[in-house]
């Protein structure tokens, strides 16, 4: 009895109702009956089954691309089958060996309940019962029974989820964001793309929703989709307006057009919980007394004068500032906060016609894609190689060997966008809309770099990686000739180290591209590792090396170049009490979902430290 899970049920792309159908179709029931060795598929009640995962598998080795399902079977709903057929069911566990019950750890299931409950505004009483918030007034130790005051700096996924959890537990939360709310941010990004006006504090990295807003909105994470904290994040997003298919889709994706209204709903909800949100407000400094942070100094981010500066007192400060808050990292060092170097990756963004990627991945089935409106999803790819100098015939420089090289943040049907936060630096990334209907497919091709690489440029100390990023962003700006024009080279010319002709393929990048030799960008060993990897990728994706593939420079902000170290028990900074570094900028997450999960867990940790929550972790 209970719920059993059936894995790896495969339906051919021809039979399946398609990528936008998430229910139990007839072909799926037939496949279930086959796996269960159940004689008559039509006798299985569809309501006994729930699709919990659906993905499209177009691996080349397969004769025919297939949709692959994971399905939960509610055994109780099968009990009214006639006895003879029930015999089959009762023997299932031994027969198929693909069934698993689904245990949840206590904290995980609590997490799901709290997030579910806290996103249903009128049902907070339920979460009160689960988490003993009734004890709140007795357990916290602040004078005059006042609520603990918490500043959350940064409204990216980590800051938003931290604010949500803390506000639910009764904290007095102020969310401080240097950028603008999505409505104004949209106008600022429009001015950038159309008139080349970069607002230093409201752009593709800074503003409501953080770096993840004008993004591809992929929600896949290496933490694993079955992780219950990931599910809690996804369910919360659904509550705020994401389609429920993200709970089932093997590669969930939102797209910028869906993220914007979702963030507006998230904001309203936080405000209804009593969170004060200050957009256009930058944290310039921490106020430290003894070994503890007791507040922050903020200024109107549109204004650089001292007179706009304000001091605000808090019991705790969450630092959820993302990987581009370079001034904030610098400020932390002035307080001797523990910040250490972290390895990350740099490289180029490659763009191919989406049709080419569709045909590489799907062969004859490519026509079914129909610019995102068809039955099967727009094709993506994910490739990774270890650079060992074998297999492609060319001997490699010893410094190239031993690096990982991989595709990163692949955006099918997307566009290349400018993620600079300073006009003298040039860096790029990719975004898309929910339909993924553009003519292009782009992805970063990056290679790992570490302290050895930073030292080679004479960069030392905790911010050496940041200086390394900056050096190549400046070089890319120079190679492009300024004005945010991006230097480009075709994949074939990059392999041959020759300038591309004036007739370079069209690019989705809106601010203009200029032919350049991208070998002039990185040190020779990084270029060589990238060349080697592109050749290896072509073995996996024949056609990847193409004169229609255009490499754009430079991709540097793949993850944070530092870690702001924190204690594993209290989640506080290892050097400053009351400071909670979270999310990607602190070096504890990479991507929208993992940053949200980190913010959520850190929110629980602080709630616990403040005596707002006494559950176990
Ligand atoms: P961020 O989202 O970076 O948020 C930090 C916030 O803090 C910013 O809004 C910033 O303005 C604010 N801030 C910084 N300093 C201060 C200060 N001193 N005072 C006040 N506020 C401050 N990830 C995916 O998983 N899937 C994708 O498809 C994807 N696509 C991307 C596309 C683009 C163009 C970019 C740039 C990133 C993309 N990412 C994607 C990465 C993802 O956006 C980040 O991993 C994620 O947003 C990190 O969340 P965070 O909360 O840690 O930080």
From TrEMBL:
<dbReference type="InterPro" id="IPR028348">
    <property type="entry name" value="FAD-binding_protein"/>
</dbReference>
<protein>
    <recommendedName>
        <fullName>FAD-binding domain-containing protein</fullName>
    </recommendedName>
</protein>
<feature type="domain" description="FAD-dependent protein C-terminal">
    <location>
        <begin position="343"/>
        <end position="558"/>
    </location>
</feature>
<feature type="domain" description="Pyridine nucleotide-disulphide oxidoreductase N-terminal">
    <location>
        <begin position="149"/>
        <end position="207"/>
    </location>
</feature>
<dbReference type="InterPro" id="IPR039648">
    <property type="entry name" value="DHPH_N"/>
</dbReference>
<dbReference type="InterPro" id="IPR049516">
    <property type="entry name" value="FAD-depend_C"/>
</dbReference>
<dbReference type="InterPro" id="IPR036188">
    <property type="entry name" value="FAD/NAD-bd_sf"/>
</dbReference>
<dbReference type="Pfam" id="PF00070">
    <property type="entry name" value="Pyr_redox"/>
</dbReference>
<dbReference type="Pfam" id="PF21688">
    <property type="entry name" value="FAD-depend_C"/>
</dbReference>
């Amino acid at each position: 009895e209970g719920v059993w899970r059936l894995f790896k049920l495969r339906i051919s792309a021809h039979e399946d109702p398609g990528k936008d159908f998430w229910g139990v179709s007839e072909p799926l029931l037939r496949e279930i009956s086959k796996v269960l060795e159940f004689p008559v598929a039509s006798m299985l009640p569809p309501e006994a089954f729930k699709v919990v995962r659906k993905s499209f598998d177009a691996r080349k080795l397969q004769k025919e691309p297939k949709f692959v399902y994971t399905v939960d079977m509610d055994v109780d709903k099968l009990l009214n089958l006639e006895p003879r057929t029930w015999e089959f069911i009762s023997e299932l566990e031994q027969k198929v060996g693909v069934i698993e019950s689904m245990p949840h750890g206590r904290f995980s299931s609590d997490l799901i309940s709290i997030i579910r409950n806290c996103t249903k505004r009128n049902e907070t009483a339920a979460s009160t019962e689960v988490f003993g918030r009734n004890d709140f007034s007795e357990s916290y130790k602040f004078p005059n029974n006042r609520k603990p005051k918490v500043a959350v700096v940064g409204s990216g996924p980590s800051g938003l989820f931290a604010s949500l959890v803390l506000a639910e537990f009764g904290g007095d939360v102020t969310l401080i964001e240097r950028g603008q709310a999505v409505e104004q941010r949209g106008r600022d990004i429009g001015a950038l793309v159309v008139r080349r006006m970069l607002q230093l504090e409201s752009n593709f990295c800074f503003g409501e929703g953080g770096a993840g807003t004008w993004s591809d909105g992929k929600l896949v994470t290496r933490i694993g989709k079955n992780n219950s904290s990931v599910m809690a994040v996804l369910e919360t997003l659904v509550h705020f307006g994401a389609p429920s298919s993200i709970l089932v889709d093997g590669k969930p994706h939102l797209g910028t057009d869906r993220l914007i209204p979702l963030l507006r709903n998230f904001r309203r909800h936080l405000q209804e919980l009593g969170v004060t949100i200050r957009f256009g407000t930058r944290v310039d400094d921490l106020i430290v007394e003894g070994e503890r942070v007791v507040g922050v100094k903020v200024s109107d981010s549109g204004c650089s004068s001292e007179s706009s500066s304000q001091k605000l007192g808090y019991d705790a400060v969450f630092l959820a500032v993302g990987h581009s808050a370079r001034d904030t990292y610098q400020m932390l060092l002035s307080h001797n906060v523990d910040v250490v170097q972290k390895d990350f990756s740099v490289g180029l963004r490659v763009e191919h016609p989406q049709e080419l990627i569709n045909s590489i991945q799907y062969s004859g089935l490519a026509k079914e894609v129909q610019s995102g409106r068809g039955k099967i999803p727009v094709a993506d790819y994910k490739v990774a190689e270890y650079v060992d100098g074998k297999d492609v015939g060319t001997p490699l420089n010893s410094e190239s060997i031993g690096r990982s090289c991989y595709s990163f943040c692949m955006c099918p049907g997307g566009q290349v966008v400018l993620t600079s936060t300073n006009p003298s630096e040039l860096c790029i990334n990719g975004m898309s809309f929910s339909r993924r209907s553009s003519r292009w497919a782009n992805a970063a091709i990056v290679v790992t770099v570490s302290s050895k690489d930073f030292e080679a440029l004479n960069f030392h100390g905790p911010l050496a990686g940041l200086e390394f990023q900056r050096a190549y962003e400046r070089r890319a700006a120079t190679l492009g000739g300024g004005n945010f024009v991006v230097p480009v080279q075709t994949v074939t010319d990059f392999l041959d180290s020759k300038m591309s002709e004036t007739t370079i393929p069209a690019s989705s990048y809106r601010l203009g591209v200029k032919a350049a030799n991208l070998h002039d960008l990185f040190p020779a060993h990084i270029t060589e590792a990238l060349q080697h990897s592109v050749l290896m990728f072509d073995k996996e994706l024949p056609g990847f090396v193409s004169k229609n593939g255009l490499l754009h420079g430079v991709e540097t902000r793949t993850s944070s170049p530092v870690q702001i170290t924190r204690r594993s028990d209290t989640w506080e900074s290892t050097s400053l009490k009351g400071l909670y570094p979270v999310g990607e900028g602190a070096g504890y997450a990479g991507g929208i979902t993992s940053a949200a999960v980190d913010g959520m867990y850190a929110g629980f940790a602080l709630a616990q430290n403040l005596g707002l929550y006494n559950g176990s972790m």
